[in-house]
Every structure is written in C-alpha cells, then in structure tokens.
Specification:
The complex is a heterodimer of chains A (177) and B (152).
Chain A lengths: L6 E3 L2 E3 L18 E12 L17 E5 L4 E5 L1 H7 L8 H6 L11 H15 L13 E20 L6 E5 L3 E5 L2
Antiparallel strand pairs in A: 1-2, 3-6, 4-5
Chain B lengths: L2 E5 L4 E7 L2 E5 L5 E14 L16 H13 L12 E6 H5 L15 H4 L12 H11 L14
Antiparallel strand pairs in B: 1-2
The chains are: A alpha+beta (177), B alpha+beta (152).
Chain lengths: 177, 152
C-alpha cells in the first residue's frame, strides 16, 4: 500500500498526519507529536585508589552533556556538594536534619557531609592527604525532567479487518440573501 | 461543522454543513501504537544548571522548590531559562544493598518493587528517611501536579 505521499518504510506504506488548525489564536495541533520527559542520574564517586602524582585535583569531578550548549560540561565535586544543601556546617538544611537523619547504607547525614567536605578539599587540591578519606561517599546528580518533543507512529494492518471510518448522518443548508 | 455565510453587501453566501465521523478499530491486535520513535526537538531539562542555585548565586531549598515549579510550569516566558539538576547525598552501601541500582524515584511515585515493600522510597539516595526530608524541603510532591494520567 502506498501512502498519500507515495512513501514507504521497510515495506509499510506511510501516511503523514497533518496538523489540525484549532483556531486563529492557537498553534495547530499535531496529534502524533507530544512532549515527553525522561530522567537520568549520575553517581559521583571519589577515586577508589590513590591517584598518581602529587595532587588529587579534579579526581572527583564528572563531565556530562549539556544539550543547550551542545558541549560536555565539568561538574565539580564541591559544586555538587553545595547543591545537596550540605556543604556548610551552618547550612540551614544540615543544621535541621544532619544529626537526626540516618542514611541508608551508611551513617548520619552530618557524617556524610563531613566526609564529603574532606573530599571537596582533596578535589580542590587544598590538601593532598588521601589516606583517611572515606571512599564510600557518593553524590547523586539527577536530571529528572529532560523534555523533548517526540513524534509517534501508529502502525496498522491495512483493510476492513482492522476497522473502518464510520460516516453518520450529514446535513447541509445553503441560503442566499 | 463548516460554515459558509452569505451577505449581498459583501457578496458572500451562507451555508451550514454538519457531519459525523468516527474511526472504529474492530481488531485491536492489528494496531500498534509506537510512542516517541523520533525526536522533533529539545524543550528543556538537559542543561547543567542547578535547581537549588538562585539568582543570588546561593544554594537553598527554597530556590530548588521555586525553580522546579518554574521549570514544570514554564513560568519564565521572557528568558526561557530553566534549571535541570538536583544533587543528593548517598553512601556506597546503598548500591551494595541493591536498593539503588539503575533506577530511582525522586517523586511521590514508588518503583514497582517498592510498592509491596511497606511503600518505602528505598531507591531514593540516602533511603526513605532522606526522601522524607528532601520531599518536604524541595516540595517534590508538586512534580506530578496537573499531569495527564491518560498520556502514559
């Protein structure tokens, strides 16, 4: 079967859905296009073995893709730590929850913040002391609302067996003044 | 219902047409709906700006809650500038326990295997207790407001 535009894809005829004009004030409505969201997360981890060289600078950082800049961007450990709201000891979030919130798989939130801050110093090359740092500290970086306009397809078997378009009663009135 | 109008002063004719049409599928197994097969363009959410970082260059829970709301409601018409990223504390032990592996939920929704487990957000970074405080501080419950449940 050939589609209206005489195109086919791997043996299937292709019929392109045309957008509906809803009104003058609104954009046309394309029934087979919609906005879809996906989410993703990254795990930031400090080096599990001591890095070679004198400095551990940037060894906790990650590079992730920025779709708006069309480039990979470095996410620094300290920057991510600040985004957890646990970077400073006097941070309101940490003061409120640090000593009372027990985290899964480890100690309390304030313990985590303390260890994560040590890694921030190591990652900034403020200190080079690797021994004694807690290697189980992680930061989860999430992008939960990645949204794209996406095209959709309805594939059907051609013919009356699949279904039909039913026509109901029609009415026409015409007048001339 | 198309409309055709007549007016001799402006030389038009008026008509009304009404029709009823309906596409009916009698054999659903012949129909396959394939969602999201091709990208038509980027909308938002894949940059490297933090929700918690405000215009004042400070990180706070209020900034995060407001920025998430702004992003999901597309409030910033003028700048079209939204944030995308959240960060959460976590211990390696949570990965070893299998609670946080390849998928997690940052909203009120539970993962399928969490539903039968006392309804706890065990996949959330830091576990259920951490979900409780981040949910309250960042108002993560707002994420699903206004969602079209039929659009899954």
């Amino acid at each position: 079967m050939a589609g209206f535009e005489a195109r086919s894809f791997r043996g299937c005829g292709v019929v392109t859905s045309e957008p509906f004009e809803v009104s003058d004030d609104n954009d046309s409505l394309q029934m087979l296009t919609r906005n879809s969201q996906v989410g993703e997360f990254y795990v930031m981890a400090p080096p599990q073995v001591k890095p070679k060289g004198e400095s551990g600078q940037h060894t906790c950082d990650i590079m992730i893709f920025d779709e708006e800049r069309d480039a990979h961007v470095r996410i620094g450990w300290r920057e991510a730590l600040k985004a957890t709201l646990c970077a400073e000891k006097d941070e309101a979030f940490l003061t409120k929850h640090g000593a009372t919130t027990k985290m899964a798989g480890g100690g309390y939130l304030k313990d985590w913040a303390e260890e994560a801050n040590k890694w921030a110093d190591y990652n900034d090359a403020t200190t080079n002391a690797y021994e004694g740092l807690n290697k189980d500290v992680r930061i989860i970086v999430a992008r939960p609302f990645i949204e794209h306009a996406m095209h959709n397809v309805i594939m059907t078997v051609a013919g009356r067996d699949t279904g039909a378009t039913l026509f109901g009663p029609a009415d026409m009135q015409l007048s001339v003044s | 219902m198309p409309l055709l109008q007549a007016n001799t002063q402006v030389k038009t004719i008026e008509g009304h047409y009404t029709g009823h049409f309906k596409a009916v599928v009698t054999k659903p197994q012949n129909v396959l709906v394939m969602r999201d097969v091709a990208c038509a363009g980027y909308v938002a959410g894949c940059n490297t700006r933090w929700f918690a970082l405000g215009e004042d260059e400070k990180f706070s829970a209020d900034n995060a809650a407001n920025s998430i709301q702004a992003r999901l409601s597309f409030n910033n018409d003028e700048t079209d500038r939204y944030a995308s990223m959240l960060a959460f504390p976590c211990w390696e032990g949570q990965f070893n326990s299998g609670q946080l592996d390849t998928v997690m939920s940052v909203t009120t929704r539970l993962l399928p295997w969490e539903v039968n487990n006392a309804g706890l957000h065990q996949s959330f970074p830091g576990g259920n207790e951490m979900y409780g405080i981040y949910n309250a501080e960042l108002q993560l419950g707002q994420v699903h407001y206004g969602e079209d449940m039929k659009a899954a």
